[in-house]
Amino acid sequence: MTNPTQEVLINGQWRASSQSAVFSPTNPTLGQPLAIEFPVSQWSDCDEALTAAASAFTKLRTMASEAIALFLEKYASLIEADKDGLVEIAHQESGLPKSPRLADVEMPRTLNQLRLAAAAARKQSWSMPTIDTKANIRSCYQAIGPVCVFGPNNFPFAFNSIAGGDFAAAIAVGNPVIAKANSSHPATSMRFAVLADKAVRETGMPSGLVQLIYRTSHADGERLVSDPRLSAIGYTGSRSAGLQLKSVADRVGKPFYAELSSVNPVVFLPGAFRERLDKLIEEYVTSGLMATGQFCTNPGMLLMLDNADTTNFIEGVTAKYRANNVGTLLSRSVETSLVKSISILKDAGAELLLGGSKVEGSRCAVANTVLKISGKQFLADPHVFQTEAFGNAVLLVVCSDITELAQAIEQLDGNLTGSIYSDSQGSDDANYSLIAAALTQRVGRILNDKMPTGVAVSPAMNHGGPFPATGHPGFTAVGIPASLIRFAKLTCFDSVREHRMPVVLQNDNSSGAWRLVDGNWSNGSLE
Amino acid sequence: MTNPTQEVLINGQWRASSQSAVFSPTNPTLGQPLAIEFPVSQWSDCDEALTAAASAFTKLRTMASEAIALFLEKYASLIEADKDGLVEIAHQESGLPKSPRLADVEMPRTLNQLRLAAAAARKQSWSMPTIDTKANIRSCYQAIGPVCVFGPNNFPFAFNSIAGGDFAAAIAVGNPVIAKANSSHPATSMRFAVLADKAVRETGMPSGLVQLIYRTSHADGERLVSDPRLSAIGYTGSRSAGLQLKSVADRVGKPFYAELSSVNPVVFLPGAFRERLDKLIEEYVTSGLMATGQFCTNPGMLLMLDNADTTNFIEGVTAKYRANNVGTLLSRSVETSLVKSISILKDAGAELLLGGSKVEGSRCAVANTVLKISGKQFLADPHVFQTEAFGNAVLLVVCSDITELAQAIEQLDGNLTGSIYSDSQGSDDANYSLIAAALTQRVGRILNDKMPTGVAVSPAMNHGGPFPATGHPGFTAVGIPASLIRFAKLTCFDSVREHRMPVVLQNDNSSGAWRLVDGNWSNGSLE
Fold first, then answer.
1. Which helix (H) or strand (E) segment is B203 a member of?
2. pLDDT for B137-191, tens place per residue?
3. Contact A250 B253 (CB under 8 A)
4. What is the pTM assigned to this prediction?
5. B chain contacts of residue A466, beta-carbon cutoff 8 Å
6. Closest by alpha carbon to A487, among A257, A268, A178?
7. Hey, are the CB atoms on A132 and B492 less than 8 Å from each other?
8. Which domains does chain B have, with CATH numbers?
9. How far is the C-alpha of A242 from the C-alpha of A257, rounded, in Å?
């Protein structure tokens, strides 16, 4: 028996959707649908949400940024108070372990992001206020307008469309958010929405500030993205759906921040293997199987030179992949997609060293998988061998020499990250120099002697990268304040009377925002 | 008698183009072609230029930013030494007055931009170095790779694809530039290229740093823009050609910075007219006819309320437009396009108060033109009444009341600028509040009591704006250092050994770059 179909949150009202169909999320641990139904919205839901968001934006523009900070803080407190319930439902929908993952890692990260966003909203340094006193010209970034956030399946809290990084960034700037829940965790998203709605009421924010729908048809999704009432989109998810929506947004010149896919190449130089082979096996396996490999920054492709150490590394990794528990995948569709990607790699000639097929039973799971190719194979078809196998699978690329490895690097698509391991004595330095510049050019974040999983919420983080990892190589989705800029427009105030300018551009600077004044950064007031 | 077809500059060599056809620029003052022929390149020219640019980029990545600064300074000096020749040829090709325009305004601006770009390259503050000492994560913007610059027709110096703002920004970041000359001033561009080539040699820069082609087929232009060897595009020009190239770049996720078209609405509130009508007539006419109205920021649409002052304003403007000299337009195609835009506006119902047709004779010129519509007419078809009439024509929108004017503002497309004139006593303040937020949201730069022509090269300038004025509302094409960011990628260095990071991220900071260190901006070294 299922409950009645759940409601959407539109303009501060929980109400029945103009639904065209219903769907239920799956409990991937059981491989069974949960006893709860969610609506597939028709266009009228989107239309009403857009109108409410536009109206909320008009009101927001007249409100102090302090109000936004208070909303974000209240919302964080309500989430914290409901932590156990959120962890329970997210576990049911995602199969991710309650502890440490959901309760002790992702929940604190989510709260931290919301509170950092609140602090950024309060201080306004994120808006890069720039003042030319001589020319009487001042500029800063300002809210862009209503933002639609499409969240991914793999972070039910930290990237949730109604509580995660894109949400926090868009709100902190001063934009209403229409959240499109990920279909794999609608109940988690709904539980967040209840709290967000409560926070909106308790802090007196406009009713269209935060809205939630669960799913639309593809056609309505495209119509939503191109609607003039919407100003920008944050999207994290599959490449094919993302590129389709991006093309629609591009046609109408609308910023579409897409985080698509990434194989996150890791290069092991020979000195590193000589120096600390066992440690590197351990380090890689921990990262590679973390969250069953379902991180955007999962190291999915390892490049190394053909020698005895490499043979030992491969044997070590394969043994550990065989011995390790097989984690649960986020959904049946992740399972299907992983099996398909492994097939593509195999069909292209990759040698299957381990795994490769679905684990028996109803649980969503694929055996831990190790595939191997030569550098020569990679160079013969670099496109197909960069197929992302999202989940607990890895492709090892064994190159005959550093020249071949460098050629492989030159063929890499844009990625979120690239890592290079080298020894501590300098024997790898020449090889490092041969490949580092080309790898750096192809990634958003370059790491030394470190796995790419673990994306610190730091002002210096870049969780971004060249296409097709994202849609633009100049923006990060993680790291406050930098991630906020995505949902802002640059506005210049030329000889505008002082009281008509945003507070952060006025002479008095009591919030202590950092401002670029006549070429120098300062956080004081003007005369 | 024409001279032999001119040569293209590819990989440091002046050589015959793989031409498919030839063309000659027109002297618009005479309405006659100049006795000089330029080639329309076939793909092989583009292909060779792309390979040379990629090779130059590999070399550039190993060079200190000081080398780039020295190149830009040398190039500026060579331009300054050849100033008279450049002014002469640019005058012949563009019809723009030698003095003050070309010699005394645009030339100094161009030199200033190149020198500011050199200073930015030297100091590296533009790269927004951000350091998290605790997490050992550091990030900055870095060169994106080879850039193609398509320059506009209206600034033969300051926006020239091989000497102007986009060129200076792309080079200062550390990118090679393939310049696509504007077809209306190829000889000016070639003269710059001779100097750029000389500067490349004299400062020991890679031979593919600066290259020049004049024209390609549309198909080859699209192929150039989407080629994997090219990393970004700067485009200033017509909306239709720009949108076509943008769509090609978008499909392959390549940053395409387009500056397209803008009508630059100016609102006159009633108190301003009451207070200083004659002054405002003078101020507007000077700005509106400056450079025969051929500025990106030309005030092409004036909005005001229907009253006696407005009637006087319109009479005053019309009288001055009638009395003023009729300037020469940049080319026959600008003339054709202006006549066509005026027809579109007339056909849609605009009343022609003055001008509207080509001036007799061979010179490229259209009579100074004034068109008028009501606010009601505008609201009935806001799309057609935002047709840009590039040149010496203006559309006056006379609204019945402030509500109607506010509704008109809500219908505006994205523009580079928006201006509001109000009185000094506060009688316009309520009206200002009614319209300012909506206008600000639709423009890149909002002005008070000031015409939008005159785009100061200031760090606080934004020469940009929402689509379709540009392709992304977060970037400016004018203002150093901000304009440089367009041609850069954000790169994070996560636990990368210090000597392997860019100089600007290392502990020592002897260039004195401004860096965001643990949340605070400073220009000193780390411990």
1. none
2. 999 999 999 999 999 999 999 999 999 999 999 999 999 999 999 999 999 999 9
3. no
4. 0.97
5. 253, 489
6. A257
7. no
8. 8-25+32-260+476-483 (3.40.605.10), 265-448 (3.40.309.10)
9. 10
